[in-house]
């Protein structure tokens, strides 16, 4: 028969377990809100690119250089954000970056030249890059505590946000000016970041499920140091580079869809402004569908099969989307592309973070968003030299590269514990 002390200890342990589970659920909801915010705000900006292009009287090449500001600001900030996460913690850094990102989306419609647009997009890109590193690092900590590959679910929230932002942008593109639309979007984003940030700052980073006791937690939100990369740093850095290359190929495709899909549908296939904006919405919807099923796919198929199947699917879809002669076939191709690309980026970032913590997230994200850095000017210049449909086929080529890299490094990944 249990003694009163043992009974009391068991009750206290059960209460602590319930409290811990409740805190994990609250953290998961708050981090999910930031992923949704990221996609919603970014897609709202993307939906107004054609209107802002007309406002600034920019050519395709000049617009491509201006759009470079988003990627340049993001990639220049990412490695520094990794250091900020280690110093101040993932949670406070996420909140600060979210506020900057949401507030700066109101700036682009205030410009009247490609140069001014590029400069304000540097600020917007800084918030975007910092938020992506910080919230992914926070997600990696939570995954370690849950011991389940739930990163695709967080990125599904990003895609759902993108779908909602692009869909809303398509509905009001013909009725609301870019200035008013993006100003309202900034207000909404700031309120959401403040609400989710309150929860995020109030709770500590959770300890990994197999960690020894509460000492593994940090009261100020700083992330615990990871152990896998510390044991074999050279191999860990090499694998982070591999995952970063896969992320690069994926981000190139996501950036191309965000920046050029609407213009392709409107300019090359004579779609209306509203239907053109729906191009990115369809893409984001199918990315969300793929990511919502991503945890199940990873648990059943494993990482390599999930990555290779996704890359091959994206390559086929983008060939259809870029070369299709009708709007509806192009939309079908965009949908297939979204389904294929869905889990490549989240898997790559999650594995890099598991290997070396915020530094791994920052390194892989920097390489990954290098794809966005290369994408806008590359596609813009190729569109000037050849045509926009031909330029968009480079997305299919890089999706194929990601497939080959994932398959070619399967043995190294498997021996690393995947």
From TrEMBL:
Chief localization: membrane
Key word Transmembrane present: yes
Keyword annotations from UniProtKB, A to Z: Membrane, Transmembrane, Transmembrane helix
Region feature Disordered, mapped onto this chain: 212-232
Membrane topology: Multi-pass membrane protein
Major facilitator superfamily (MFS) profile domain location: 27-414
Localization in the cell: Membrane
Membrane spanning stretches: 25-47, 62-81, 93-110, 116-135, 156-176, 182-201, 236-253, 273-294, 306-324, 330-349, 361-379, 385-408
InterPro entries in UniProt: MFS, MFS_dom, MFS_Transporter
Top-rank taxon: Bacteria
Protein name: MFS transporter
